[in-house]
Design brief:
472 residues; alpha/beta; ten-stranded mixed sheet; 23 strands; globular
């Protein structure tokens, strides 16, 4: 049978999405539906909130994978990167000679075509940076399209189809599909790109930091000469990667040589203010309701983007002030008995360290970190020692046993119990827990008025946030 991968037919009336319940895939499904395409989908685990999110938009989702889910009159099948080549729906697609492609190919074709693409890449901060850029463009009346990896509180959505000339995309370095092992961000040709930082991550697909650098080097060196790259200035890996790049490069950060520089930052419980310098010239003071030095850097990148897109300083200032943030990024889930429970996506050691440092000034009492190692990297022992140094800003740490540890080879597994012991050796009160129930039971008796409980996981963590609030 003819293989028709990486092919999108001229006319698509009906499409099927394999693994539709991911954040990006669900957003793509809704975009296509808004464009008038009939969309069906399937996934291994269909449950709220994504199941109801899709159902509310009239998208039929089948639970599990089966050849019969690929309808008789489907024009295009879109394949998620978690789908294996032996997936029954992927096999049926190939057996019937249907056209199929990856998510970034579909996004490029249907939504980004003809737009000025603003792409945000880097190991950390992509979601917040892309979300802030999307909101700032919207607040300035530019009516952008966007797709990011988190729910923007200004829109209660992670996507939007606008009528303006720009599209903001969060560019992921993770692999694309079983038939395309290259990074997702290589499918876009951005007019403007941000590089927030480069560290080793995704140990399931990258061998080491050299492998990661090679991927980013390829990306920046293939940027068109007419593109502009905004790169963080305090990252040695970025220095190595962008050397000799052919497009325009502007650096942002706090060093004296940065094109976009922040000075005199003031970090408070409600946000950050700083003085902005552009090309050595003072431009005034800006404020944003985001916490921490890492978010100050993210904000600088967005200011640089906005200025390049001819947004006025007044519009930039107002857009920053009115940004409501991203769900699961320093999100307050509730306060009970004087105990504030926060939710954050942090899982990489650097993200854990920076998030705790950002929250520390806002915590009235103790800062209690609750950590669930859940990603393919955090469940590996590659960062075992790094995690022991990532929780220094916390007064107490609760570490859960990784829930999916059997996916990792025996000799490569992360040990939550070892982390708790290492933290104790550093003078930080730490406990190891076998499951979420045990953490909720412990904290419901331990937490007291004034405490801040910061929950960090890239997953749902068994709804620990609400369960803890209910117990409190």
């Amino acid at each position: 049978m003819e293989q028709r991968f990486n092919t999108i037919p001229p006319v698509v009336k009906k499409c099927h999405i394999i693994a539709i319940c991911g954040t990006g895939m669900g957003a793509l499904a809704c975009m296509l539906k808004e464009m008038g395409i009939y969309v069906t989908g399937s996934d291994q685990q269909v449950y709220p909130p994504m199941s109801t999110f899709l159902a509310d938009r009239g998208i039929v989702v089948q639970n599990g994978f089966a050849a019969a889910h690929v309808g008789a009159d489907i024009d295009l099948v879109i394949v998620g990167n978690a789908v294996r080549k032996d997936n029954p729906e992927a096999l049926e697609t190939q057996r019937r000679g249907l056209c199929y492609c990856s998510m970034p190919q579909a996004l490029n074709h249907f939504a980004a075509g003809g737009k000025k693409v603003v792409l945000v890449t880097g190991t950390h901060g992509k979601t917040t940076t892309a979300a802030l850029a999307a909101w700032l463009l919207t607040a300035a009346g530019r009516d952008p399209s966007f797709m990011v990896g988190g729910i923007l509180r200004n829109f209660d959505s992670n996507y939007r189809l606008g009528n303006g000339d720009c599209m903001v995309i969060e560019g992921d370095e993770y692999d694309t599909a079983f038939f395309d092992k290259g990074p997702k961000f290589m499918h876009y040709r951005p007019n403007l790109a941000v590089l927030t930082g480069i560290e080793f991550d995704h140990a399931d697909i990258f061998e080491d930091i050299d492998h990661v650098r090679a991927v980013f080097r390829r990306f920046v060196h293939e940027l068109p000469a007419t593109s502009s790259l905004f790169a963080y200035d305090a990252d040695a890996n970025i220095d190595r990667v962008i050397a000799g790049v052919g497009c325009r490069v502007e650096r942002y950060g706090r060093s004296a040589h940065a094109c976009w520089r922040s000075t005199a930052p003031v970090f408070s419980a409600t946000g950050t203010s700083f003085r902005l310098e552009h090309a050595g010239k003072a431009e005034g003071t800006l404020s944003v309701p985001l916490l921490g030095a890492h978010n100050l850097a993210n904000t600088l990148a967005v200011v640089a983007l906005a200025h390049h897109l001819n947004i006025s300083w007044t519009q930039i200032a107002e857009g920053l002030r009115s940004f409501k943030g991203v769900k699961r990024r320093q999100e307050v889930r509730g306060t009970k008995r004087g105990v504030t429970v926060l939710d954050d996506f942090a899982h990489h050691p650097t993200a854990v360290r920076e998030t705790l440092a950002a929250i520390r000034p806002a915590a009235a009492g103790r800062l209690i970190a609750v950590f669930e190692p859940r990603t393919n990297t955090s469940m590996r022992n590659v960062f075992q020692a790094d995690y022991a140094r990532a929780f220094d800003a916390a007064d107490m740490v609760c570490v859960r046993h990784p829930p999916l540890l059997d996916k990792i080879p025996q000799g490569a597994r992360f040990s939550s119990e070892t982390l708790a012991k290492d933290l104790e050796a550093r003078g930080i009160a730490a406990r190891f827990f076998v499951d979420t129930d045990a953490i909720v039971a412990f904290l419901s008796g331990e937490a007291r008025a004034g405490d801040t409980v910061l929950v960090m996981s890239n997953g749902g963590f068994d709804n620990i946030h609400q369960r803890l609030l209910d117990r409190l």
